[in-house]
Amino acid sequence: MPQVTRAGEPMEVAGTLPAKGEAAPALTLTNVEMKDVTLDDYAGKRKVLNIIPSVDTPTCAASTRHFNEVASTLPDTVVLVISADLPFAALRFCGAEGLDDVEMLSTFRHPEFAEAWGVAFKNNPMEGLCARAVVVLETDNRVLHSELVSEIKNEPDYDAALAALNK
Hints:
Blueprint: E1 3-6, E2 9-14, E3 28-31, E4 36-38, E5 46-51, H1 58-71, E6 77-83, H2 87-97, E7 103-106, H3 112-116, E8 120-121, E9 133-137, E10 143-148, H4 158-164
Parallel strand pairs: 5-6, 6-7
Antiparallel strand pairs: 1-2, 2-8, 3-4, 3-7, 5-9, 9-10
């Protein structure tokens, strides 16, 4: 099982993050309107999945803000911010921050997402939350880029994620 660290302490993560060139696993998540969505709901678009533990942490909030800033400049691309946060909390966060270029999705009804996508914390205090990761998908849901952030307090490599969309 992969590991990430939290302040240098190892944190076990279950599953395998999809690798470049692979087909993305299926997913069902809940949006802020309390509707379940799948990758088919974003057909014809490239997707940036910003997977985070919770928008209520400084690093997660920063990455959500960063991707919101660049989202409007990405043609035919949707930025999906995925966490275990309830849709109500995600909607409150986006409203308070003035973020309207990212789509917030929750794993609260679909905890199977975390292990299927290789971001499930296991056997540690963060269990039930997702590890920090970024996965970029082509319109056909083929993985263009994936990163499991090795230290939970660190932000992802934005430049690498966005460069994958420009190839």
